[in-house]
């Protein structure tokens, strides 16, 4: 059985490498960043303020706020374009689930769950 | 009487005249040589037999093909665009009942997943999709080809459409070279694409007939070449006619709309209409990034046009630079412009290349050449062939 001429095939492929890298560079430069949730920032004043810091393409944000003692009903904000939320709620212990998703992609969603002990800071 | 069966993925019908029309060209030529070939198209759809130009076409899935092969005693089975499902029927036959098999390797069915990288690097989704297909489609196909190329229980011969296609694309993909193979090119129909002697002035008339469906057809290079030529003093003496259709047509050709001597003809060009276009031009501008042979270049050569293209894939096997056409390195727009300028400045050389191109391609891939070789192979009478020589 004859052998594959690997050397010849390699040199042909080598001819493509610069072009492959150029195409890849263009792809990377034009690519939208990969969806990820960087941080959930909490500020406690008279209200409980939450800012979701996420990276991705055309983002939407949402929050589920659960009162761990069950005094108030769970708040589900639904998705919105703004990444900042403000809740005028009684002091207490809450569980916050912060979501971020890309509007144009189905099934793209990241979330983070955090516990908060909220005391009103009345100045 | 020996019975021949061709199994393929598509065959022309009255409703779809241009689907693998080159297979019908072959079958008609085999008929003229006294060989009767039955046709089976593999499909999961339930379709009645169709008749096209005196040929009966049966439609079957892999299990029906297996039953059909068991019930009919074919001495030879011919495969085009082969895959594992198409071959299932052969596997179901006992070793002593298996026919002589001839497999044509044309292009996509025998290439590595990365060969046409420019077609799937437009966005991440395309790339992800191809990476998935690498494992689900390309790897099983590679294993299948490797299996049938190395098995000793099959009497099987492979036909590659060019030597460079075999050595650069197929061999490194499959990783083995089959015991029995021939290099037989696709037919360049020299009866349809008859040579017409060109005058010196024909070198001013440049045409391109290409699909605009993917980047491998390199129509972006055609546009860049014309834009660069527009800075030359003699540009207005030239006339360009760009034919083709596909999602990239408008996007790519838009910058050419400003030139009065560039005519854009968007639409599918029927094969029967191409000779008339060839008659009106002297140069065929047909850049390429990927070709196992370059049939459209060969057809233009047959008509007497001088091809200006790239030295990639199988193309250099059919075009010798400055003898039967003009070859530029991959993606080299500057070199293509220089080659067109050379033809502009050397009318006598243009006429000579035109004549030589037509003669050469007829000799290499004309109907008589190809059919006599194929008939030798499929009848298993190899007296006129030397193994591996085109």
UniProtKB/TrEMBL annotation, chain A:
Naturally occurring in which organism (per UniProt): Jeotgalicoccus aerolatus
Protein name as catalogued: Uncharacterized protein YoxC
Origin organism lineage: Bacteria, Bacillati, Bacillota, Bacilli, Bacillales
Automatic annotation (TrEMBL), chain B:
Keyword flag Transferase: yes
Annotated GO MF terms: glycosyltransferase activity
One Pfam family in the UniProt entry: Glycos_transf_1
Listed name of the protein: Glycosyltransferase involved in cell wall biosynthesis
UniProt domain Glycosyl transferase family: residue ranges: 196-359
InterPro entries: Glyco_trans_1 (IPR001296)
Highest taxon of source: Bacteria
Keyword Transferase carried by entry: yes
Annotated organism of origin: Jeotgalicoccus aerolatus
Key words of the record: Transferase
